[in-house]
Amino acid sequence: MNDSPEQTTRPGMARRVTPRQHTMSLKAFNIVFVTASDSAGVRPFGVWSLLDYQDHGNTADAGWRFVSVLAGFALIIYDQAILRKP
Length: 86
What we know:
Number of strands: 0
Largest sheet: none
Structural class: mainly alpha
Distance between the termini: 43 Å
Oligomer: single chain
Radius of gyration: 25 Å
């Protein structure tokens, strides 16, 4: 007996259908990951650091804000490099 999805065991029986595997390309995964990282991590942290700096005047918070901006730019540059690849 062959278990291929195209064959049936008896006339009139429905064929066995195997679910298709949905795969995501590496480029699509990178786009989703970079967008999620930027919107859920880098930007809120930068806004929080800026607000904390305004409230308390701690220079470390301003430094973290600067690091957050650099990380955001690095993610954008990385995303552009991935999009250019064939």
